[in-house]
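Open question from group meeting: does this chain pack into something compact, or does most of it stay loose? Before anyone orders reagents, we agreed to write out a predicted structure and look at it together. Recording both the input and the output here so the notebook holds the full record.
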Amino acid sequence: MNLLDFAVTTPSRLDSFLTENTGKSRAFIQEQIKLQRAQVNGSVCLKSSHRLKSGDTVSFQLVDETIASHLTGTPGNLDILFEDDFLLAINKAAGVIVHPGAGQKENTLVHHLLHYLNSSQFSELSSERPGIVHRLDQGTTGVLLVAKTEQMQVLLSEMFKNRTIKKRYQAITYGKVTLSGTITLPIGRDRKDRKKMSSRTHKARTAITQWKSLDRFEHFSHVELAPQTGRTHQLRVHLSETGFPIVGDPTYGKGKPKGSSLSLAITDWLQPLDHTLLHAKSLDFSHPITEKHIRVVAPLPNDFNDFLSILMEHDPCLA
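C-alpha cells returned:
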C-alpha cells in the first residue's frame, strides 16, 4: 500500500480530486474513502462529496494491486435477462442480498456473479461490490444492472446519477389509491431511528415519485411507480407516508387494514409472506457503448401474480 500526498490548488470534490490524481475509477475511489483511506488536512474523511479548498492537503493510501478481490465466487441461480460484452441485467429474486455487508458476508448476488463471470477483469472492479452500479433492497425483486468492465461501471454510475435511465416499478399496496399522482416528500435519515428513512428528518433531500393505478380493489391497489430520484427506500417511504404502505414491507408497513376487514383467503395468503411486494419491472436506457436503445423487462414474480388473482376473487374491484 502506497501513501500519496497531494496539495489542493483548485476547489473540488474529494472523490473527483482523487480520481483525477490517481487515474483510478470514481467507484474505486469512493470505496476506498469509505474504507478510511483518505485524509484531509491530517484527519480521516469518509465523505466522497467533501468539498476541498485551495490550500488543503490530501493523503491517500493506494492499494498496491489494482484491487485483488478477497471474495470467492460461489455457484448460484442467476436469471439473466440481457447480456453483452459490457453489462448484464439480472432478474433478482426476493430474499437475495446484492452485495456483502455487515449482516451478510457470503452467498450474495456478487458471489454468484464472480462465479458466473470467472474474470479477473470483473473481480478487480471492487473488493466488495464489483459491477454493482445500483441496488435493490433484499425483499425487492426485478431488474438489476451489472457492469462487466471498469469503463461500463463508471458510465452506468453516471447515468443513474444523471437520471438518464428510466425506471419502472410495480407494487401492491394497502388502501384505495386515486388514478395517478406525484409524491414530492423530501427524504432523509429519520430523526429517531437512524436505520429508517423518513420525511421527518434533519437533512431532507429532494425525492420525487410519479405513480398510476393499474388495478384498484376494496382494500388494496396495484400501482406502477416511476421514481424521478434515487433516494434510499424512496418508494417504500413515499407510499407509506401517503397512507398506502406496500404489502409485506417489514419496516414501513404500518397503517394496513385490520385482518378482520379482510377475507379469510387474503389473510391466509398474507400470513407467511416474508418480503415486500415491490418489483423493479423495467429499465430503459441508451447503451453507453453501442448507443442502442435497451429495454429490459422482468416478469412479475409468481407470488405477486398469485396475490393479484386472490384479490380479484376475494376483494371486490372498483370501477
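Observations to bring back to the group:
The longest strand covers residues 166-174.
The mean pLDDT is 90.
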